[in-house]
Amino acid sequence: MGDCNISTPDNKQNRKNQEIRVPRVRVIGSHGEMVGVLSRDEALAKAEEEGLDLVEIQPQADPPVCKIMDFGKFKFEQQKKANEAKKKTKQVEIKELKFRPVTDEGDYQIKLRNMRRFLEEGDKVKVNIRFRGREMSHQELGREMAARIEADLGDEIVIESRPRLEGRQMVMMIAPKKKV
User: Fold this and answer.
1) CATH number corresponding to 94-176
2) Which segments constitute the Translation initiation factor 3 N-terminal domain (predicted)?
3) Per-residue H/E/C for 10-44
4) What whole-number distance in Å separates Cα of residue 34 and Cα of residue 22?
5) Confidence category of residue 106, pLDDT binned at 50, 70, 90
C-alpha cells in the first residue's frame, strides 16, 4: 500500500461508503495509484469489487479525495500512530526539595544526588530553603545555601528563577539544560 497523508479536520470521523454524499469523488486505488474522478456510485462499486471500503480522506478538496482501503485496518493504524505519539511526549514534572539553612552535610549530599537524578530525568526542581524562628534574621545563610547548590550542580542546570523570599522560605526554580 502506498503512503498517503490522511488528514481529518478537527479529528472528526472519516466518512466511508454510503456516508459519502457528494456526487463526484477523486479516487485513489488500494495500492496508492490514482484512479481518477468518478461518480460516487462508480467508486463504491469499484471498492466493493475489491472487497474493501471507500474512505473519504480529504473532504475539503474539490472534488473530495477518497481512497479504496480496509477501513478497520486504517483505524487500527491511526490509533497505533496516536499511541506512539502519546508515548513520545514526556510530561515535565516539578519536583520539590526542602532544605534548611543548617542542613547537615550528609543530608545535603543525599538531596543533591536526588536533585541530579530528577534533572537527568528531565524534571524541573523547586528548591525550598525554610527558615524557622530567628533564622529569618540570617537570610544570608539561605542565599549561601542556594549559591552552593548552584555551584555544586554546575553546568548541567539552568536557573529559571533566582532565589527569592516567599514568606518564611526562600524559593529557587532549577531546570535541566537542554541537550543539543
Assistant:
1) 3.30.110.10
2) 17-85
3) HHCCCCEHHHCCCCEEEEECCCCCEEEEEEHHHHH
4) 19
5) very high
Query: What angle do the packed helices 139-153 and 105-120 form, to 10 degrees?
Result: 50
DSSP code per residue over 116-163: HHHHHTT-EEEEEEE--GGGGGGHHHHHHHHHHHHHHHGGGEEEEEEE
What is the DSSP code string of 36-67? EEEEHHHHHHHHHHTT-EEEEEETTSSSPEEE
The tens digit of pLDDT for each residue in 158-169 reads: 999 999 999 999
Give the pLDDT confidence score for residue 179 in this predicted structure: 66
* Pairwise CA distance, residues 65 & 74, whole Å: 16
Average pLDDT on 92-98 reads: 91
Residues of the chain with CATH 3.30.110.10: 94-176
C-alpha cell at position 2: 502506498
β-strand partners of 28: 34, 67
**159's grid cell:** 536557573
